[in-house]
Design brief:
Number of helices: 5
Oligomer: single chain
Number of strands: 0
Order of helices and strands: HHHHH
Number of domains: 1
Distance between the termini: 24 Å
Radius of gyration: 15 Å
Largest sheet: none
Length: about 120
């Protein structure tokens, strides 16, 4: 269970970031072009790291991490992203976007694949 603590802490950090009102974000970054790219880069980092932490928590010396394992863990990442998007629906100036949850899943899966290639092969 201790392996999953970093996952919980990181997801809590993602939820804190999702709680920032939209008006505050536009004040920090007024240019819409920077907002778009900043938003994408934030998702890449947040969910790429989450993917790494999830596969790291799951993989033990006795577990075999194959394609099916990564797909199942990707479903976990998708549910995390969807929950985060739902959470944003309660934040002023923010709105949930299915495409963001899908992008989060892609970023998290990429993080898991990079971790597998680097540490589990």
């Amino acid at each position: 269970m201790a392996n999953w603590l970093p996952v919980v802490i990181w997801y809590g950090f993602i939820c804190v970031l999702s709680s920032i009102p939209g008006k505050t974000l536009t004040t920090l970054v007024p240019d819409s072009n920077y907002q778009f790219w900043g938003h994408r880069i934030a998702h890449i980092i947040e969910y790429g790291v989450l993917g790494v932490l999830v596969i790291r928590a799951y993989a033990t010396p006795k577990t075999k991490v194959n394609v099916m394992t990564i797909l199942i863990l990707a479903c976990f990442i998708f549910l995390s992203g969807a929950l985060d998007e739902w959470h944003q629906s309660f934040t002023p100036g923010r709105s949930p976007e299915l495409i963001d949850a899908i992008f989060d899943t892609i970023c998290g899966t990429f993080g898991m694949i990079v971790y597998k290639i680097r540490f589990l092969w």
